Amino acid sequence: MVAHEGRGAELAELLLTAAAGLEREPGCELYLVNRQADAPDTIWVTELWRDQDALDAVLEAIKGGPETAAAMKLVEAAEMIELDPLGGKGPTPRAV
């Protein structure tokens, strides 16, 4: 996500608050918030969900909520990139 100029820190804080709320969400296996080192208004979120149903349930629960609205007001542009985990250190990837 790219925040409006000068609003990256504010967006990151809202996303970190969301991350804290996901601690109790069993379907969320990973949710990392990162700031791009050379572009402080660019925030990367890396997520890993147990399955699509778990993600869909959380998205439905937050849709239209005040926290979601506040975050989206800060976003100038966003792009989702889906990946298929193949391996490495961290949660065990599912068969591809």
UniProtKB/TrEMBL annotation:
Pfam families in alphabetical order: ABM (PF03992)
Record domain ABM: where: 3-57
Name of this protein: ABM domain-containing protein
Species whose genome carries this gene: Actinoallomurus iriomotensis
